[in-house]
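ugh ok fine here u go
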Amino acid sequence: MLPDQEIILRLCVAAILGGLVGLERERLEWAAGLRTHMVVCVGAALMMIVSAFGFADILGTPNVALDPSRVAAQVVSGIGFLGAGTILFLRQEVIRGLTTAASLWTVAGVGLAVGGGMYVAAITATALVVLILAGVRPLERRMFRRDRIKHVSVLIDRQHVSLLRMQGEIESSGAKVQQIALKMGDTPDDDRVDITFLRGIPKEAMLDMAMRLKSLEGVRSVNL
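structure:
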């Protein structure tokens, strides 16, 4: 059986490592933030400790065999229900929360490693996860979304414009519209249509689309 001081140390280390990952998610105001990641990591560490050392009293009993991995193995599959709760299906082809679900799953693994006394593996995994979550995101944006536009604001005259025609012109260019919001102005010729696309569109393609929209009757201006 582990000494009490070692049990306390492992649970505290799990809380700290889980909190480091949770801080990054909390910064982006996701549903699963600091507290959730800390609790998951501590819970996984506790289950690992119980799985490996909690049945020491019955060892040696006739016809009793101990598999220290059985309880811990359930964490890997059981954490799935919590991760699934962070995934949001907003619309077709729009899914949010996959990264947070993956971070919860990884934090559970970190907790298992700490509970098993594998401090180096747990600390290294935590450092890598924090680096991936906080450091790779800006790099990803720079590499894959450079010069891409996802929002367009169109000033229209509601008495002469056709929103269906506008949407048709946009979709005929291959762009997928996520949302079209009409905001009424003080006068009929001062309304604004805010268009959000599923994915960013290269600036050159967006300029061509803007010219097509500008040529429609009732469209006064297009702001990228």
